[in-house]
Specification:
about 100 residues, mainly alpha, two-stranded antiparallel sheet, 2 strands
């Protein structure tokens, strides 16, 4: 027959719940700070403007960011204005914002 030893649990330390609450609040504050920073400063690909096109397109992972400037943006907009597929319809508003809405 195995020897049964009673499990002795250490008594809870005072302030344990307060420490846990402080950690939860600190993590929440960090996440809130990151969210505010992402909303205020979206990054270099924020909007379509000044000859650069930025568009979010459907992808196998949910969405992909398509960013093009210069000759590539002009070519992209030329094809988007010429074609009538779904992707072209998604790209056209970004081309207009970038000032490339009437590329020949």
């Amino acid at each position: 027959m195995p020897l049964l030893v009673p499990y002795s649990q250490a008594p809870p330390r005072p302030g344990g719940k307060r420490r846990l609450a402080a950690i939860v609040v600190a993590v929440a504050v960090v996440f809130a700070g990151v969210a505010v920073l992402a909303a205020v400063h979206p990054g270099g690909y924020g909007q379509s403007r000044a000859g650069c096109v930025t568009v979010t397109i459907p992808s196998s992972t949910g969405g992909a960011l398509l960013h093009a400037c210069g000759a590539w943006a002009r070519s992209l907009c030329r094809h988007a204005l010429r074609d009538g597929d779904r992707m072209s319809r998604l790209i056209r508003p970004a081309c207009r914002q970038a000032g490339l809405g009437s590329v020949s």
